[in-house]
Design a protein that fits this description.
Layout: E1 11-17, E2 23-29, E3 32-38, E4 49-52, E5 54-59, E6 61-62, E7 65-66, H1 74-86, E8 89-97, H2 101-117, H3 119-124, E9 128-131, H4 155-164, E10 169-174, H5 181-190, E11 194-197, H6 204-213, E12 217-218, H7 235-241, E13 246-250, H8 258-268, E14 272-275, E15 287-291, E16 295-299, E17 305-307, E18 310-314, H9 321-330, H10 336-342, H11 345-350, E19 367-370, E20 379-380, E21 383-384, H12 392-397
Parallel strand pairs: 1-4, 5-8, 8-9, 9-10, 10-11, 11-12, 12-13, 13-14
Antiparallel strand pairs: 1-2, 2-3, 4-19, 6-7, 15-16, 16-17, 17-18, 20-21
Helix pairs in contact: 1-2, 2-4, 5-6, 9-10
The structure holds zinc ion.
Zinc ion binds near residues 143 and 198.
């Protein structure tokens, strides 16, 4: 395959602008949007929507590939990149969670190697998200991370991770409850990392210190928390009220109730971000599986992933980012264009990617043609419209 940046063949894509709902022709050359023209739509033309590519800041795995398995291969990284592209994700952040130090380094090296091998992978991976190991050891905030490998912030250890990744770590999720967290966060920021608060049991003062030191995001706010919390203050209210913090949420319909999503969207507005947080079982058919994190797990027909025999204990998310966009629209929590931006422009802006331009001239031509509602079949008074001759009543009315 030709390296992406050498593909200079001009291209015209026609679609309904996802924001303005006007038919447009989008001109592309050398990977960049060069022009957008209003289009006269023929009456019988059915154009798809056109919008900016989705950006997923948190992907633990998908379609059988696991970013937390030391046996991850370059081919596996290429395969997951292609699986995600098919679902509209043009930029993603492989997410490596708490593990043995050597295992983390091995996985980071493999992701780096995959970027060196494939220009497509290199252009789709915006950076690596290191989620842990400097998180809370407390039950609840710890979530599914292995407690044995949780540790206080350690700059030389992080430096060894950064080196193993070829400098590709761009985002780190940590808990500021450890002593020395503020200095560690300042060091991360100086080295160009975006710092997120997550898997935390931090006090309000510790959260304030983290924000003052440069933390800019709450990772999957509302999840990885204690089952019971003091009504106030607590770390959810504190992060919700911090205007300096963006918030990512898992909007798969199982991790957070609609009321919580609504409150987070209202509070964070342009800083509300959808993530998939998908695991390797994401995109696979319903059934029972053996998961490296949860053991025996069940993926239901509805798309919920839970511990086998325990439907209330989630075992990660099994849905791609597009599912979250649809959930948010379906629940009436945002319009389609706003939901789409929560999964594209909002994360790009926070990560300062060129993709933050969205569907504008000069932005990278990462584009998705989609239909918000795909009609499979239509019924009239209970009659399948493809077999009209069997439907006497409709014929009588004509
Ligand atoms: Zn997490």
């Amino acid at each position: 395959m030709m390296p992406l940046d050498q593909n200079t063949t001009p291209l015209v894509l026609s679609g309904i602008h996802y924001q303005t709902h006007e038919p447009v022709d989008v001109m592309v050359a050398s990977g960049i949007i060069t022009d957008i023209q209003k289009r006269e739509q023929a009456p019988d033309e059915t154009l798809p929507f056109i919008g900016p590519g989705l950006v997923d800041m948190q992907v633990n795995g998908f379609a059988g590939v696991d970013f937390n398995d030391a046996t991850l291969t370059v081919d596996g990284v290429i395969a997951i990149t292609q699986s995600l592209l098919k679902l509209g994700v043009t930029t993603f952040y492989p997410t490596v969670i708490t593990n043995a130090d050597d295992t983390i380094r091995t996985i980071l090296q493999t992701i780096h190697q995959a970027c060196e091998t494939s220009s497509l992978v290199a252009s789709c991976i915006g950076g690596i998200h290191l989620e842990g190991p400097f998180i809370s050891p407390e039950e609840g905030p710890l979530g599914a991370h292995p407690k044995a490998h949780v540790k206080p912030p350690d700059w030389s250890l992080l430096q060894s991770f950064i080196d193993a990744s070829g400098g590709r770590i761009r985002l780190i999720t940590l808990s500021p409850e450890w002593p020395g967290s503020a200095d560690f966060i300042r060091q991360c920021v100086e080295h160009g990392l975006l710092v997120a608060i997550g898997h935390t049991a931090a006090s309000p003062a510790q959260i304030q210190e983290a924000v003052d030191a440069g933390a800019r995001l709450s990772t999957h706010l509302g999840n990885a928390a204690h089952q019971l919390l003091p009504r106030h203050p607590n770390y959810i209210w504190e992060q919700l009220a911090q205007d300096g913090l963006a918030a990512s949420v898992i909007a798969d319909g199982f991790h957070l109730p609609p009321s919580v999503l609504k409150v987070i969207f209202r509070m964070k507005a342009e800083k509300a971000i959808l993530i998939s947080d998908s695991v390797s079982l994401g995109g696979l058919p319903a059934g029972n599986y053996q998961s490296p994190v949860g053991g025996e797990v069940t993926l239901t027909d509805e798309g919920k992933l839970h511990l086998a025999g325990k439907p209330t204990v989630l075992a990660g998310s099994a849905q791609p980012l597009l599912w979250g966009v649809n959930q948010v629209v379906r629940l009436g929590l945002a319009s389609l264009d706003k939901a789409w931006e929560m999964a594209s422009i909002h994360p790009s802006r926070l990560l300062n990617l060129p993709q933050q331009g969205g569907l504008t001239i000069g932005a990278p031509a990462d584009l998705v043609l989609f239909r918000a509602v795909e009609v499979i079949k239509v019924y009239k008074k209970g009659c399948d419209t493809e077999i009209r001759r069997d439907c006497t009543e409709i014929h009588r009315e004509k």
